[in-house]
Amino acid sequence: MTTKTSDIRKVALASYIGSTLEWYDFFIFGTAAALVFNQLFFPDFDPLTGTIAAFATFAVGFIARPLGGIVFGHYGDRIGRKAMLVLSLTMMGGVTFLIGLAPTYASIGIWAPVLVTLLRFLQGFAVGGEWGGATLMVVEHSPQSRRGFYGSWPQMGIPSALLLSSGVMATVSALLTDDQFMAWGWRLPFLFSGVLLVLGIVLRRSLSESPSFRKMQESGEREKLPAARVFRQHGRKTFRLVASQAAENVSFYVLAVYSLSYLTSVVGMERSTALESLMIAAVFCVIAQPIFGALSDRIGRRKVFAGGMVFNGLFIIPFFLLLDTQNAMAVTVGMTVAIIFGQATTQSTQPSLFAEQYDASMRYSGVSIAYQFATVIWSGPTPIIAATLWAWTGSWVPLTLYIIAAACLSVFSIIPLREAAGEPLEAADGSIKDPSGRIHDQGISIPTKSNVSPGGIQDTGGVS
Hints:
Layout: H1 5-35, H2 37-41, H3 47-78, H4 81-99, H5 105-108, H6 111-139, H7 147-175, H8 178-183, H9 188-191, H10 193-205, H11 211-219, H12 226-233, H13 235-244, H14 246-267, H15 271-299, H16 301-323, H17 328-355, H18 363-379, H19 382-393, H20 397-414, E1 432-433, E2 438-441, E3 444-447
Antiparallel strand pairs: 1-2, 2-3
Helix pairs in contact: 1-3, 1-4, 1-6, 1-7, 1-10, 1-14, 3-4, 3-6, 3-18, 3-19, 4-6, 4-10, 6-7, 6-18, 7-15, 7-17, 13-18, 13-20, 14-15, 14-16, 14-17, 14-18, 14-19, 14-20, 15-16, 15-17, 16-17, 16-20
């Protein structure tokens, strides 16, 4: 069941646009948390404590993401990728629009932060199901020789959303006075998501179901509890995928969220200047991602991914030194270099690398669990940890040591994973059945009733 080049390009483009719209909703909250939420929802706190509380609200979305990944992954493996993509986008857009209408602390007191925290939780639940479906729709449609290239397209939605959310926030900030922005202007980027929601739904409903899922439909085979099989048979592999994202996730939220707070409150840079620097870096990341995705088709996913992790560890100290110059050009260069070589390298290869670790019957669940559990451990706490370390030491040095340690963990975790660039996707199970119906995985015989693709081959390039 092959996909025409024109069809895969349509799927890739639609997934890119849809992913951009959904991540816009998620990031606009982070931008607002860094810039205004401490004053709007936690005004009784001192500025530093209010910032930490605002970032704690931001982190709640990450706690919900694994739950969303498990639920959406289950139904994505059972009833289809496409339906879950439309549902996740609808939920995300609706919740983000409601955040734009949320009353502040001045209106309803303590219920204001409670309400916005609940809405942030629902945001996280929705985006937890987004990533697995968006990436699999492209990866499962792609020819095996270009899986890395096309798989990078939905990932381009991450920096594009960062660009869009920062751009909308910067535009609103520039057109309004500080009093107007604090009074009602901050709501406009959230309300804008209602327009984006309609566009995203139209695009995603036009896509065809992925070839891998259509094969399962034709065979009538379904995994009853795909998430349970992920943990039971591929627990070690999934743990390594989670650990491999340490440096990427920690450094990304330092770059995209904490750095805005650091530049405005510590360095003393204008909010608009900090946002412009981040926007320029995001543009270059969008350009670099398909290049690194294509490179992974030629030299392998692990080399490109690990190279980005090493760069994250090596560049984080120069990055903060550039921020401290208070020079807009230096800050922009630092952000751009960090995002291109520390983020585009890893983000571009994740869809193909992760999808190649699981067979179709549990692939949505597997990639969602691996990706979303990493966000809880690494992404969500990062802005809080960064702000707390600064409050504790008055220095960014402890934070850089944290990122260097995360880079070391990521590199060691990526090495044992299976390298499947250029191989058929349906052969990526990493296990085969013997005549007795037992699965042999890395030399361990495991009784199971699960259905394994007849094309499954023994995985000799990775560890489960």
